[in-house]
Amino acid sequence: MTDEGTHEELAKRRRAVLPDWLSTYYEQPIDLVSGEGRHVQDAEGNRYLDFFGGILTTMTAHALPEVTAAVSEQAGRILHSSTLYLNRPMVELAERVAELSGIDDPRVFFTASGTEANDTALLLATGYRGSNQVLALRNSYHGRSFSALAITGNRAWSPTSLSPVQTSYVHGSRRRGTPLADLPDAEFTDACVQDLEDVLGQLHGNVACLIAEPIQGVGGFAVPPDGLFARFKEVLDRHGILWISDEVQTGWGRTGEHFWGWQAHGGSGAPDIVTFAKGLGNGLSIGGVVARAEIMNSIGVNSLSTFGGSPVTTAGALANLEHLLQHDLQGNALRVGAVLRAAIDEARPRLPLVADVRGKGLMLGVELADPGTGAPDPAAATAVLEHTRRDGLLIGKGGLDGNVLRIAPPLSLTEQEAREGAAILVDALGRAGERP
Predict the structure, then answer these.
(1) Could you give the CA distance from residue 234 to residue 267 in angstroms, rounded to a whole number?
(2) Cα gap 400→177, rounded to integer Å
(3) CB 381 within 8 Å of CB 405
(4) What is the pLDDT of residues 115-147, one digit of tens each?
(5) What is the pLDDT of residues 195-223, one digit of tens each?
(6) pTM
(7) Would residue 37 be called left, alpha or beta, if left means φ above 0 and alpha means ψ between -120 and 50 degrees?
(8) Could you give the angle at which helices 228-239 and 185-201 cross, rounded to 10 degrees?
(9) DSSP class of 215
């Protein structure tokens, strides 16, 4: 117990000073005070295996020594300068991201968050194309800014219909609960392409861009068939429409199969713009945009960033990225993700609550539904979160109805930890299914 009082008192103080809409997990929110590797500890001394990583942000490990050292060393020299001055860590990180991006003649702009990255991508695309018409996927989420919420296709996260852009939504990832639910992959892809063509046929003039998450994060880890966005790109290219791949949650090897989520859809070429954030900083506030120079340089006015690409965050992010590459954490995500998925799949026949298991690598979603009606069961998801917390495992949830468990541990997860976490999760799913 800390000297500042109980976690109940801290929760009360939080409610008194922070917005009501700033929700927390758990009936009794926990105060995380330290972490190491794949584990975190709360103020009361409880230790948890972390399968959510601060919303897919702790990419490598908690308290990674290389990141701690890089941040400490840089902070001892200078904390801040802005983009008005040369900044060696920013340039070195930009060079590394550009090299890894897969985009021809890339330019990199750093931001302080994924929201700001997507906001910048929309600014680039709409300005470059001279159009405020944007295509987005149903069930999507791209951040919390006014423009990002304007392209959010998920009612639970979109508080207003006011918008700086005209957004049209197309099918692409979410299947359960839609008329396309039972289609095989090839037919699903064909139907989505036809839907895209139909939507474009209803719009006037040029369209700026399509923005899409390769795997929808907040949307419950909804996964399109591989190659779907390559088919989309064939249509987009005929109209000159830009493709923005939102890699805030799928980037840096989390899917195991590829370094970027878009690479499962690269048959028609790379995206025009890629946005990133979260895992790059391993908890440091960093995001960014990488785009073809022609697009990135199309802004014809003065601009800068006060906090984007700060010396401390870029130094820490570069250390984190190098650790990930040197230790092949993408390969680990593929191998250990398969162990975790197999453990869940093996238990699924005795877990009637589980309507679907999906995802790639260490980005797995477990959708829960009423066994009798097939209706989404968000209450069961909440119950599972409570059970897993009590047993020492932290997971997330999402989906259009809040009924999808989101599992995304640091990419250094071991096989033993994967089996340990899966056992806790399976037990919690069984107990949640026994509700009266």
Answers:
(1) 10
(2) 10
(3) yes
(4) 999 999 999 999 999 999 999 999 998 988 888
(5) 999 999 999 879 999 999 999 999 999 99
(6) 0.95
(7) left
(8) 20
(9) S
